[in-house]
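dumping this here before i forget
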Amino acid sequence: MDSSPRARPVYTMGVAAELLDLPPATLRLYERKGLVVPARTEGGTRRYSEEDIDRMRRVADLQTDGVNLTGIGQVMDLQDENAELRASLDRRDPE
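structure:
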């Protein structure tokens, strides 16, 4: 797990929904579709990180642009893969 402060799951669903100006049901839909995977407390409460909030904001923006959730999943997967490849290249050649 990433130990950066942005990866720390601190936001409840209500707070995340408010930050994103989205209904909680939309956040649950994003989770069901595998677009975001929030952390869970021992009691099962969802907790979102800043990174999760940023990801859901990108999902919402793509949805607003007319991309369906299946397409958004593919776009997000490609973006994640691209970021991983860039990080790998940066580790090899940190110029």
